[in-house]
Amino acid sequence: MNSSLSPTPLLKAGWLRVILYILALIIGAGTVLASFILGLNKANPDMTRIQELLTGNRAAVIVSIFFVLTVLITYVFRRWVDRKSFISLGLGMNGHIRDAVSGGALAVFIMGASCLIIQATGHLKWMDFIFDPKFQFLVLGTLGLTAFCEELIFRGYILGNLLESFPKWLALAISTLLYLGFHWTSAGFFPLLNVLILGLITGLFYLYSRNLWFSVFFHWAWKYMAGPILGLGDDTSARSFLQSSQLGDENITGGRLGLQGSAIVMAVSLLCAVALYLILQKKLSLQSLPVPGRI
C-alpha cells in the first residue's frame, strides 16, 4: 500500500471537488485556446479564427494539447485533492478488456442498424468510397484522444465524485446534464437528445462497473463510425470512407448534422440503453445470489 495516499480527501464534499475541478478545466482550456488565437493572429486576436483551430491538421495538435492538459489537471486533483490513485478513476484494464470490446461493438451496432433502417426507408444511398489512410489514421487517433478526455472528465472524475455526495441515479443525472451542457449547441432537438442518451449509456455502465473502458471505446467507435466511416458525420464526411447521399426528411437522415441529428439513431440508442440497463440489473441480481453450499 502506498502510504503517501490518504483515504481522507482534502475536501470532504464530492460535489465541491467537482466544482473546483470544472473551474480548473475551464481556466486551463481557456488559457490554451487564447494562446493559440494570439499565436495565429500575431498578437492581434480574432475570435473568428477559432473554427480554423478545429479543422485540418491543427485539430490533431490542439486535441493532443487538451489531452495532456486534461490528464494533468485530473491527475493533480485525483492525487492531491481526492487523495486517491489516478488509476482508481476507472482506468484499470485487468478484467475489463471484454467491457472495452463490448462498448465498441455496441456503438458499431447502433450506427450500423440506424443506417440500415435509414437506407431501407429510402432516405440514404451510398454513392462511392474513398480510402485515405493518412486521414483515417489521423482522425482515428484524434477521436480516440477526444473520447478518452471526455470520459475521464465526465464519467471518471465528475460522476465518480458525485457518487460520494448523492444517490447514484441523481449523480448520474447531474453528470449527464453537465455532459449535455458541454455539448450544447443551437443545432436542434435530436442532436441534443442523442448526446443525452450517449451520456446515459456510458454513465450507466460506469455505475455498474466503476470502470471507464466500456465508455471510452463506445464513445470512440460512435464518433468514428458516424463520420470517417459511414460518411454521415459533420465536417469529416467529405473525406469519409463511404460517400453518402441523403434524401428527404432531415429528421430521419440528420441532414448536415449527420447521424447525431437523426431520430432513427435516437430510437435505436434509446432501445439499446434500456436493454443495457436490463442486462446490468440482471447481472447485479445474479451476483447478489448466495453461492450454493455457503451460508
Mean pLDDT: 85
The N- to C-terminal Cα distance equals: 31 Å
User: Strand percentage, roughly?
Assistant: under 5%
Helicity, as a percent range: 55-70%
| Number of DSSP-assigned strands | 2
Kindly describe this structure:
The chain has 295 residues and is mainly α. 65% of the residues lie in helices and 4% in strands. The protein has a domain at 91-286. It contains ten helices and two strands. Helix 3 (57-81) runs parallel beside helix 5 (133-162), helix 5 crosses helix 6 and helix 7 runs antiparallel to helix 8. Residues 291-295 have low confidence and may be disordered.
Keywords:
295 residues; two-stranded antiparallel sheet; 2 strands; mainly alpha
What are the SSEs and their pairings?
Layout lengths: L13 H27 L9 H4 L3 H25 L15 H24 L3 E6 L3 H30 L5 H15 L6 H21 L3 H17 L12 E5 L3 H4 L9 H26 L7
Antiparallel strand pairs: 1-2
Helix pairs in contact: 1-3, 1-5, 3-5, 4-8, 4-10, 5-6, 5-8, 6-7, 7-8, 7-10
Give a summary of the structure in a few sentences.
The chain is mainly alpha-helical and 295 residues long. It is built from ten helices and two strands.
